Amino acid sequence: MLDRHCLYVGIFQLIILAGVANGEFYSSVDSMQDLAQVEEELLNATRSYVESQQKQLDFYRRYVEQIKQEHEWATSQLKLDDYLGHPLHAFRLIKRLVQDWDALIFEPILANNAREEFRAFVEVLSRDLGYPDQSELQGAIKGLARLQKVYNLATSDLADGIIGGFTYGSDLQWRECYEIGVQLFDLGEYQRSLEWLQVAFILLQNSPREEKDEDHYYSDIREYASMANFELGNPKKAGRLLSQILESQPTHSAQQTQKYLESRVSGKNVKETNPSWFSNYTRLCQGRRLPEERSGDPLSCYLDGKRHAYFTLAPLQVEPVHLDPDINVYHGMLSSKQILSIFEEADKEEMVRSAVAGDGGKRTVRDLRVSQQTWLDYKSPVMNSVSRIIQFVSGFDMAGAEYMQVANYGVGGQYEPHPDYFEVNLPKNFEGDRISTSMFYLSDVEQGGYTVFTKLNVFLPPVKGALVMWHNLHRSLDVDARTLHAGCPVIVGSKRIGNVWMHSGYQEFRRPCNLTSDSYKSLAYRD
């Protein structure tokens, strides 16, 4: 089987194989920018290394050519002992073998100071800026598979650099498609793996002759395709693919694969099962709603200058997207300058992989949430402005507000359907559950990245500077299951958001209970 490491483990990874990558890159586009800097440094260092090695090689050539000429002249003499009998000739021959070859050739080749300097540079670079490892590659490939699944993206289109109907000029080579197929196989995504292997085979057929003539490339693709078919419950097809390999290459490793598969029971071609929310989730992520009957006047945008005196001269630009529960988008709440200031504040903090609440309230990292985040207090001028905006729009007391969570999504970054309330396992420092969510869009997104409410048939494309606000609890302070929502995978672009959650413990006079409970409204939406 083709040595997979030759496809994705470069010289620099071999050099720092024992090192530790700093943080995580694929889960945040902002962190990926660090990798661009790493590659730029590597390019410059490699160029310097190659130039220094070239100079050394040029010196070796000149020296060898000079010695070759003298050696040929000496051996062309009628009697070699006449040449060596000359004291200066004898001296020069002995000197070359005792000193020159050792000092000028052997020591530099064995020592190779330029190589050691290059190795040391890469080690420092990986320590200071970080370097991706195998888990990063798998994370990026999981992101690609996620995009295919949610948005129904064809493998052949992705390989051709076509995403969402747009051509980006970033088509993949057969080796890259093969590597994606291999990694997906290792991740247990057999059907998707098979699709990428088939595309790799086609691209290899259309590749330059020097690669087409390498039969073992075809064999390696067939071998993985046979194993994928076996796991998908197609043992006969798996056997045929292995037989094709062994007909032309009887000693190929497919022999061992064939014996291994014969000793196992093949997998079952079981149709993939998805969560109950998945169909609504993918439909809304693609910008498609289910048709529904509406009563009353259609929702329309309006200006609101009466919410607070702060908005008298510059009224709120309100876009209501759902009533009961109310979900409103307030446009133009943050300027580009303010957003840049928020990013500057966030840069002072460490971005960490976003986690979800697990058993007992413990935070765990899972693929259902792929992003990085940090937290900002309200002490800086720009964050003080954010605090006032939320207070004046929501009417809530900011004493119950959590710090703003600033998040950035990476390759296929998402947050699967979830509620913002806790209901159980409330953190000890919370004064009540999360009564409301205020989410600022801090960037536009070229494709994907919608916020969707899977039980309300609502999707919201990110609009830079806008604020989305909704209540997570009924007035009775019971949780409102209708507010289940998700952040769809980002297809192209970088999604940045700022979340502020408000606790109910300080809002008894800001949003008081009614005389009767209103929790019945969401009972039918409970899972």
Automatic annotation (TrEMBL):
Its cofactor is L-ascorbate. Residues 35-70 form a coiled coil. Residues 1-23 form the signal peptide. It is an enzyme of class 1 (oxidoreductase). Residues 400-504 form the Fe2OG dioxygenase domain. InterPro entries: Oxoglu/Fe-dep_dioxygenase_dom (IPR005123), P4H_N (IPR013547), P4HA-like (IPR045054), Pro_4_hyd_alph (IPR006620), Pro_4_hyd_alph_FE2OG_OXY (IPR044862), TPR-like_helical_dom_sf (IPR011990). One of its GO terms (cellular component) is endoplasmic reticulum lumen. GO terms for biological process: salivary gland morphogenesis. GO terms for molecular function: iron ion binding; L-ascorbic acid binding; procollagen-proline 4-dioxygenase activity. The keyword Metal-binding applies. It comes from the Eukaryota. Belongs to the P4HA family. This is procollagen-proline 4-dioxygenase. The lineage of its organism: Eukaryota, Metazoa, Ecdysozoa, Arthropoda, Hexapoda.
